[in-house]
Every structure is written in structure tokens, then in C-alpha cells.
Write a structure and sequence with these properties.
Distance between the termini: 21 Å
Oligomer: single chain
Radius of gyration: 14 Å
CATH class: Alpha Beta
Number of domains: 1
Order of helices and strands: HHEEEEEEH
Largest sheet: 6 strands, antiparallel
Shape: globular
């Protein structure tokens, strides 16, 4: 089921386990720590696609697009513009929608600032923002 009609999608059988298969201990530590960060915001569902894993409530609000021993590339959705040198990309879509991408290369980057952004993104995922 989709949040609204005519939503783009791709069908396929993808799993979180397949995405994580063969990942080393540092990659898995990034993943587990991110799950803890997101979990502090509230309950969520994981959605696996061919090239990423999404964290979802009513809609996807955080995604992981790359995960390796060297780091993790993640993105999140907000309804506001924010400035930070941590972002590798900030993309404006429509209707106050912003997608922010950043690269995590150290576990200490999963900090209070990121926690705040993720929880604000969680509100977007709940369609409350």
C-alpha cells in the first residue's frame, strides 16, 4: 500500500539481510548504532530495496545507501532547510521537502546533532511535520 496514488516504486524481493550480507564488523557497527539512533525516536519498520535500506513509519524518512568498513552514506527527509558542513548534499524537492545526505566515517558522528535531525525526520515519516 502506498501513501498516495501514483507513487513511483519498483517491485523486487530484497531483504535487509541480503543488504548486510558480507559486511565487516565496522560496517555492522555503523548499522547497529544507526538503528539505535532511529529507535530512540520511536518504532519503525525497515524496508529493503535493491540499493538501500529505508526506515519507515507511514513513509520512509531515513535511508542508508552505502555501508562498508570505510563508512556509511545515509540520508534523511526534513520539511525545513538547515545548514551544516556535515552534509555532502542538500536537495530541495517541492513543498518544503528537503533531502539531506551525509557520510558517516566514525561512530562518534552518530551524535546528538544527528539524533535531533533523525527524530525531526521521524516526525516527517509520521506525517506530523
Amino acid at each position: 500500500m502506498f501513501w498516495q496514488a501514483n507513487t513511483w516504486h519498483s517491485c523486487g524481493r530484497h531483504t535487509v539481510e541480503a543488504f548486510l550480507e558480507g559486511k565487516g564488523p565496522k560496517a555492522l557497527a555503523y548499522w547497529e548504532n544507526l538503528k539505535e539512533v532511529v529507535g530512540r525516536c520511536g518504532p519503525y519498520t525497515l524496508v529493503a530495496n535493491k540499493t538501500n535500506i529505508g526506515f519507515m513509519v507511514l513513509v520512509r524518512f531515513v535511508g542508508v545507501t552505502a555501508l562498508s568498513e570505510r563508512g556509511m552514506t545515509m540520508n534523511f527527509w526534513l520539511k525545513e532547510k538547515i545548514e551544516s558542513s556535515r552534509f555532502t548534499k542538500a536537495e530541495y524537492l517541492l513543498h518544503r521537502d528537503w533531502i539531506y545526505r551525509l557520510r558517516i566515517t566514525s561512530l562518534d558522528q552518530l551524535d546528538d546533532e544527528l539524533q535531533d535531525w533523525v527524530c525531526r525526520s521521524y516526525e516527517v515519516g509520521c506525517r506530523r511535520a
